[in-house]
Write a structure and sequence with these properties.
Structural class of chain A: mainly alpha
Distance between the termini of chain B: 20 Å
Oligomer: heterodimer
Strand content of chain A: under 5%
Largest interface: A-B, 44 and 41 residues
Number of strands of chain B: 5
Mean pLDDT of chain A: 89
Helix content of chain B: 55-70%
Strand content of chain B: 5-15%
Radius of gyration of chain B: 17 Å
Strand order of the largest sheet of chain B: 3-2-1-5-4
Structural class of chain B: alpha/beta
Radius of gyration of chain A: 19 Å
Number of helices of chain B: 8
Number of helices of chain A: 13
Order of helices and strands of chain A: HHHHHHHHHHHHH
Low-confidence stretches of chain B: none
Helix content of chain A: 55-70%
Number of strands of chain A: 0
Order of helices and strands of chain B: HEHEHEHEEHHHH
Largest sheet of chain A: none
Low-confidence stretches of chain A: none
Largest sheet of chain B: 5 strands, mixed
């Protein structure tokens, strides 16, 4: 499913629909969740990551247990993320949701900026927070004790305002499925592994799903300008790469 | 709300065991047990068994995981040390029946033990919300009342009183304080709803 489609519908989703979206995204990203199931429609990788962060941040959904899994995913697979695309998606999301802040998204930004400064430091804008943030206010005393004992993870500090000890992000390596499983189940991931993280791989992936894809649609979905979108589609259609098994 | 914690996955595994002429009865704790009891559809990562899983069943779990493309530890017996000790000291761990299949039977221990399986990890991993979320789910679903909570808290106090390590004891008492105030607030809110 496309980023723009989810973005437009997200705020109107009921709680059960959000949980069902979570199951789809968990399957797409390869999170170990017993409720995850193959979605009817394939989800874009960056859109999945972004909305996974949004869903985890929603307290009433009680999905906080998957926060460490999200960061395990980032540590394993961040090399497969299209930095430009996710940056633009996050910016688009922030523009619409200027007043509310999703803590998991903000943490993701900090993580990516710290670990891959060349790709993210200047492009990914973080929102400063005014007061100390605890995942659950009831745990404040315990979290402060844990911070004293363990400290922050290397990519967070007290100035960030996110009061999270190292153990917040502790997880088992099995909580995210292996590259092989992801390679088998996720075509977009497979194409990125074969072709590298590029718009061409994404265009090919989208074209397979939507043979009538227009340059305008591709440009909007991948946050690219019209001219390269047009050129890409033209090339792919000319050589009919999506039909000869380059995408299977 | 329907029970979604992939009952279909459990049913599939039940059939998988049945086809291989194997039977297994487990007592489970943690998120999955709580979600099954609270009849909730919230996602959970794995099934934590406090019954030791025999090698032949472990092999089946691994093969099933490969077939379904899920984590090999989706059904595991790595429960917390504290709870394992508790469960092996006289508690009936087969207190509530959760699932009765042809080859697979799942039980949960008493409500008190189940709550304790969530209280203890709070000492070790205070930075995550999963344990508090599970406790909230049990209370919100009306599965446990204030008496059950008080009883579990009393058991928790008894156990942490004998802890030797001072740092652990300090954190455990902080958990106790948090749970006491949480209990008062939560049941007060429920009464006034």
């Amino acid at each position: 499913m496309k980023f723009q489609t989810i973005l437009a519908a997200y705020d109107t989703l009921r709680q059960d629909e959000k949980l069902s979206l979570f199951d789809d995204l968990a399957w797409t990203l390869g999170f170990s969740s017993l409720t995850a199931s193959q979605p009817k429609e394939a989800y874009d990788l960056e859109a999945s990551l972004l909305f996974m962060g949004v869903l985890i941040s929603e307290r009433p959904l009680r999905l906080g247990r998957f926060l460490p899994v999200l960061f395990l995913w980032l540590s394993n697979y961040s090399k497969f993320i299209n930095a430009q695309k996710i940056t633009k998606m996050m910016t688009a999301y922030d523009e619409i949701h200027q007043t509310e802040s999703c803590y998991a998204l903000e943490l993701m930004k900090r993580y990516l900026r710290f670990h891959e400064p060349k790709r993210y430091k200047t492009a990914l804008k973080i929102r400063p927070i005014k007061e100390a943030f605890y995942l659950d206010q009831r745990m404040k005393e315990l979290v402060d004790m844990a911070l004293e004992l363990e400290g922050f993870p290397e990519w967070l500090d007290v100035h960030s305002g996110y009061m999270m000890p190292k153990s917040t992000f502790h997880t088992k390596s099995m909580d995210v499925l292996s590259e092989k499983v992801l390679f088998d189940r996720n075509e977009q991931f497979r194409l990125r592994l074969l072709m590298g993280v590029c718009y061409r791989a994404d265009a090919l992936w989208m074209l397979k799903r939507e043979p009538a894809l227009t340059p305008t649609q591709l440009a909007a979905e991948c946050f690219m300008s019209y001219e390269p979108a047009h050129r890409l589609l033209h090339e792919l259609r000319t050589y009919q790469l999506y039909e000869i098994g380059a995408v299977s | 709300m329907t029970v979604k914690i992939s009952l279909h996955l459990i049913e599939k595994f039940d059939a998988f065991l049945f086809e291989r002429n194997l039977v297994y009865a487990a007592s489970i704790v943690g998120g999955t047990a709580i979600l099954l009891i609270a009849n909730s559809s919230r996602p959970t990562g794995d099934i934590d068994s406090i019954s030791k899983i025999p090698p032949d069943i472990k092999k089946c779990i691994a093969n099933f995981a490969v077939r379904e493309g899920i984590s090999p530890t989706w059904f595991n017996d790595n429960v917390s040390r504290n709870f394992f000790e508790y469960a092996t000291h006289g508690e009936n761990v087969f207190d509530q029946a959760l699932y009765f299949g042809q080859a697979l039977k799942l039980y949960a221990p008493s409500k008190t033990a189940l709550l304790l399986s969530k209280f203890h990890p709070l000492v070790d991993r205070p930075g995550t919300t999963k344990d508090l979320d599970d406790i909230d789910s049990l209370i919100d679903a009306g599965v446990i009342n204030k008496n059950d909570f008080q009883k579990a808290l009393e058991d928790f106090r008894t156990r942490i009183r004998f802890e030797e390590e001072s740092e652990f004891r300090r954190r455990a008492w902080a958990v106790e304080r948090m749970l006491s105030s949480m209990m008062e607030l939560k049941f007060y809110q429920l009464r006034n709803q």
